[in-house]
């Protein structure tokens, strides 16, 4: 419980007055060690829920609209962007796996 409050405090400080920028915030139901946050600032941040540290920031080059961890692949994260692109990230490798260009209609 203390860890949750510590992480909440870090995220609150990170978000500051710009709470409206964050569009998605989720944890991985299969592997509880990650929390992902997506923002209108075009970034996804991956947080370690044990240490409460940001372990990676992915630059998406467009507003992040939604996030989802891939079922049965707990190290993969899918992001839907404002420009219609869908990106698949690998958390442990800390890299972009695939990019689907303009799949979502505006």
What does the model show?
The protein has 1 helix and 8 strands, in the order αββββββββ. By secondary structure, the protein is mostly beta strands. It has one domain (2-100): Neuraminidase (6 Propeller). A 4-stranded antiparallel sheet has the order 1-2-3-4, with helices on one face. It has a 4-stranded antiparallel sheet with strand order 5-6-7-8, with no helix packed on it. Residues 17-21 have low confidence and may be disordered.
Order of helices and strands: HEEEEEEEE
- Which secondary-structure class do the elements indicate? mainly beta
Q: Can you tell me the CATH superfamily?
A: TolB, C-terminal domain
Indicate the CATH class: Mainly Beta
CATH topology title = Neuraminidase
Instruction: Give the strand tally.
Output: 8
Second rung of CATH, namely the architecture: 6 Propeller
How much helix is in the residues?
10-25%
| Domain module tally | 1
Mean pLDDT: 78
Tally of individual helices: 1
Quick rundown:
The chain is mainly beta and 106 residues long. The chain contains 1 helix and 8 strands; from the N terminus they run αββββββββ.
Helices and strands in order:
Elements: H1 2-15, E1 22-27, E2 34-39, E3 43-48, E4 53-59, E5 64-70, E6 73-81, E7 86-90, E8 95-100
Antiparallel strand pairs: 1-2, 2-3, 3-4, 5-6, 6-7, 7-8
């Amino acid at each position: 419980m203390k860890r949750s409050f510590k992480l909440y405090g870090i995220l609150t400080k990170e978000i500051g007055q710009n709470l409206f920028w964050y569009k998605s915030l989720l944890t991985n139901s299969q592997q509880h060690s990650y929390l992902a946050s997506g923002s209108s600032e075009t970034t996804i941040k991956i947080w370690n829920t044990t240490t409460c540290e940001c372990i990676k920031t992915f630059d998406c080059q467009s507003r992040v609209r939604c996030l989802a961890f891939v079922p049965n692949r707990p190290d993969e994260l899918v992001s839907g962007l404002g420009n219609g692109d869908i990106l698949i990230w690998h958390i442990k490798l800390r890299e972009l796996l695939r990019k689907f260009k303009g799949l979502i209609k505006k």
